[in-house]
User: What shape does this take?
Amino acid sequence: MNVGIIGSGYVGLVLGGCLAEAGNDVVSVDLDKSKINQLKNAEIPIYEPGLQLLIDRNLKARRLRYTTDVTEAVGVSDVIFIAVGTPPGEDGSADLQNVLDAARAIGQSMQDEKIVVIKSTVPVGTARLVRDLITTKTKAPVHVCSNPEFLKEGFAVGDFMKPDRVVIGVDSQHAADVLEELYSPFLRVENGIGRLIIMNVPDAEVTKYAANAMLATRISFMNSIARLCDVTGADVDAVRRGVGADSRIGSSFLSPGAGYGGSCLPKDVEALAKTMRDFGVDGSIMESVAAVNESQKKMLLNKLVDRLGEDLTGLTVAVWGLAFKPNTDDMREAVSLVTVQGLLDRRARVVVHDPVAFKAAQNHFGDRIEYASSNLDALEGASALIIHTEWQLYRSPDFNRMIELMKRPLVLDGRNVYSPASMARMGFEYVSIGRPALASKNQIHSVIGLDQ
Assistant: This one.
């Protein structure tokens, strides 16, 4: 099938690579000439495991190409995806300017019947606006559909190739048939457990926001429970296991931490709250989810200040992990942005390490912070270590070497990577999220039952 994609950002790149891998002829459009020139040379601007290989292979096979010419892409394509960014506006609503610009360009370029699929995350009613814009520019028949993406950064290629579900909102049986054919290679039984769920267009538009908002709600809920555990001495790990064992609830997205970030959950929660307000629906639950998360992002910094004081002048603080999650270089809305800025405001010397997010950090902080070549190098003379991202590299470090390097063996773990008992036994002052700290051998003996 001939497929056009408008937008060569995160979603557009994954979409194009995976559809080309399935044998489709894909042309991807972006107005950024420098980006297109890089992509023509297989230089991708993001870090996503497995994506480089897909793009290399399909560029060489000529199933995938990149251009700045929208008219050309629309002309040769049967299905055209809109995969442009929808950043949050000042009021929290999704900024649809890029989507509407893409719709105008499609309408001006259309000469025959097309299926236009909105892949961007947009509020309910956007497909209608897109249809109206296209039909004012052309008399050719157009089917406007919604196909929200459910890709996890760091696992996007696998999520697309073996999806748990594909949601499509359609306006005609013709569109349903074509999109079912397009997605059929990814939904075969031997390829995973994927299901194709076909619904009306507004249903699909709401589904995307509802899914992300539910995930964010679970995270903020569990972070609130972790705060309760902090002040009562309960252990959130035990609570999480007990709650997650309930078949009606499950264990996914119940791990507490220093808050959620990234390109999806924060803006989608805000956009859904704004949409609910616009339609006169009580959106206070979404507003609370966002408020809890913003407060949670300050928790590591607050815990550090409680122990080292408000003025950190002359102190070195090491930071492991800058990306909002492992296996990506994405720092959008990352907790590290809040922590590092707070450390700088308190005049600390900040030394950071992340396996892949250095470029993003440099774009944000420049030379205001120092960049260590290894995670252990960041610890030299540090009065504290803050862990933001649970990269595999950080799970089993040389703890003895850490003790030797640090001025004070204070570890603030925003992802609960380590065992409190083990850290205390090795001599660390260990602070995690919602779990009681163990500071003495007597406490350790009590936990493991040696005092009985």
User: Anything to note?
Assistant: The mean pLDDT is 94. The chain is about 45% helix and 15% strand.
